[in-house]
């Protein structure tokens, strides 16, 4: 950028921040607010601390959404108090509009919160107003900072409050000033230098994205087109060059504020839809990987397949939720497009003959239509995958059934084999018991029938001497055992042969 001409100055510059914070979440119901709903007001207090502005420091005292706790001697965020303090005249419009500044207790009229700071080293005195509002499900902040003097362009940076205030849905900076010592042909260059003075790191949006004329005065729009609301910088530089501009601005105030609010909501809804799309796409890719594994499956265990069966429905649930949220965001965009169009028609009705509002109409005709088309394309691409989740679940269930049946068959065969082995062991044991029992029984009978078998066979008396007696007794035992074995052996063979017969099993 060329160096700013030293003669260029800004007369009575005022910078208005229109910031929008989501108050309610549709998924939490009308009575439930977002966890960070009060962030906008807390940031205003922080700005008051930074700039030493007493009214902003004590802003909570002025707002209906805060109540005082005498025990802790401090104010706490209490959104339910907003409706409770609404007057009878305000209650019919609570769903659309509510001023959050407490009414004057004596007149019961709305109050404007004006403030000023002490003069700085350059003799400049910062002044301003703040108007906190609730519009539908959103908090809206109208914060204006101004100088009553003619200032150097570099001094405009002191007006910008965005180093402290960053709204969740989005925001717009509107600089309104009368150019001094600037030719009409250099208005755009002058606006570029104003933006460079207002915001650091302006390389992304030094050139205006659109130009126009509103209520007789030229206006320049700057937008860095960032997707995330907190990173997006939307600036309007409006050069006061027509005597009717200020009066028309007052008439169009509510329409302009609502139009900018609708714009922020549309951009926010689209950014959220892109977030949902990216998350759904991650799940889609995971599913594709699982499908490829099923087409050429490794040897998964039954435990691994059961784990898949647990994970796939969870993934399918999150996938369906992302698609549902994308549909909700599409509806939000459509609703706010209609609201934006209505507010734009109100502004057009107040416009002057030579006004050019194409920069506002282009957002409606081109940007919003592009958003709607993109979301519809995303949904058409992602919706068929929901059936793939169902098919994959059914496939895995089938694989589990096959593997379970195979596992049951193997288990049954193992049990049968173990049972057969146990039966064989039992039969062997019975055979041994039978043979041994038979042998012992025969030996017992033999010992009773022929008690002195060895003496009779060898014709030797047991009374000859003790060693001979012991020896013959031992021989008697051996003899009877041999008789038992000889008779038990054929019995065992017969029993073994009989059990081997098919009818003997």
What would you say this structure looks like, in words?
It is elongated, with a radius of gyration of 47 Å. The strands form two sheets. Strands 1, 4, 5, 6, 7, 8, 9, 10, 11 and 12 form a ten-stranded mixed β-sheet that branches. With 505 residues, it is of the alpha+beta class. The protein is 53% helix and 15% strand. Residues 460-466 have low confidence and may be disordered. It contains twelve helices and twelve strands.
Instruction: Give the topology string: H per helix, E per strand.
Output: EHHHEEHEEEEEEHEEEHHHHHHH
- By helix and strand content, what is the structural category? alpha+beta
Mean pLDDT: 83
Terminal Cα separation, in Å?
A: 105 Å
Number of strands: 12
Poorly predicted regions are: 460-466
Basic shape: elongated
Largest sheet: 10 strands, mixed
In short:
This protein has helices spanning 39-51, 54-57, 59-62, 81-84, 187-198, 245-251, 253-295, 302-350, 358-382, 385-449, 453-458, 466-500; strands spanning 9-22, 66-69, 74-77, 98-99, 113-116, 127-135, 138-146, 150-152, 170-180, 210-214, 217-223, 234-239. With 505 residues, it is of the alpha+beta class.
Tell me the layout of helices and strands.
Blueprint: E1 9-22, H1 39-51, H2 54-57, H3 59-62, E2 66-69, E3 74-77, H4 81-84, E4 98-99, E5 113-116, E6 127-135, E7 138-146, E8 150-152, E9 170-180, H5 187-198, E10 210-214, E11 217-223, E12 234-239, H6 245-251, H7 253-295, H8 302-350, H9 358-382, H10 385-449, H11 453-458, H12 466-500
Parallel strand pairs: 9-12
Antiparallel strand pairs: 1-7, 1-8, 1-9, 2-3, 4-6, 5-6, 6-7, 10-11, 11-12
Helix pairs in contact: 7-8, 7-9, 8-9, 8-10, 10-12
